[in-house]
Amino acid sequence: MQQQISVITLAIGDLGRSRRFYSDGFGWRPVFANEEIVFYQMNGLVLGTWLQGAMQNDIQRKAASPGAFSLAHNVAAQHDVEPLIARLAAHGGRVLRQAGATDYGGMRGYVADPDDHAWEIAFNPAWPISPEGYVRFGI
User: Fold this and answer.
1) Which CATH superfamily is domain 7-59+69-123 in?
2) pLDDT exceeds 80 at position 1
3) 4, 96, 106, 125: least CB-packed within 10 angstroms?
């Protein structure tokens, strides 16, 4: 079976607040939006932000709290980490961990979106990013 993830959908409380974080904070542009969901085309997958009640109805269970997981957005240069964290915080995010050096020679920090989903903003010198935005696991 092919190893892939097609869509990641995050349960959210307020569509406008979430869209401000993702569209204005990250600078991502939706490919589809209606009154309860927004989809963003990523490099190789789609990210959805869906109103929690509608998502609960669709999967027929109460959505759990975000819990202990994080999503990651890798950047091409170490000096890009701190400004992106600040930009996301200015657009409704909450800094969980300030940008700092890692023991593998990179830089990382964490910011929560308005619905408390944790995002790692990272630079890893061993993980190259193609011009199309694809990151490759490297050592």
Assistant:
1) 2,3-Dihydroxybiphenyl 1,2-Dioxygenase, domain 1 (3.10.180.10)
2) no
3) 4
